Amino acid sequence: MPEKVTWEQINRSGNKLLAPAYKSNGHVFTSGSVGSDPVTKEIPEDVAQQTENAILNLEHVLKHSGSSLDKVFKVLLFVSDGSFGPIVNEIYHKYFPHQPARSCIVVGFPNKKIKVELEAVAEYKELDPKL
């Protein structure tokens, strides 16, 4: 049976219509992580900073789900403009040097400030309840 990861479990507030992740059969499936600042929740104008923030937000969800960026084997990346590719790829490669499978789709986000969003599938291990 899939196990829901809640906003409370990852110590963040979020969209109450969805879970930040689900775990099943040794895998964690995340919802999309956008480039908002993890502390202020502000969305920076700069696509490079949004990309960095989105990956750090994803890393936070993975960590609190018993996984990590190096356990990611599939990424779905959304960008609002295809011309952002070189900037996004430069930052992406710093965090994913192991080159997980990836798709990249150009989309129109409902919030026009958002330029980058990613979701991932990763392996996980059970967290030690003493941590």
Automatic annotation (TrEMBL):
In the record, the note on similarity to other proteins reads: Belongs to the RutC family.
A Pfam family of the record is: Ribonuc_L-PSP
Origin organism is: Wickerhamomyces mucosus
| Top-level taxonomic group | Eukaryota
GO CC terms: cytosol
Write the protein's name. Answer: Uncharacterized protein
Molecular function via GO: deaminase activity
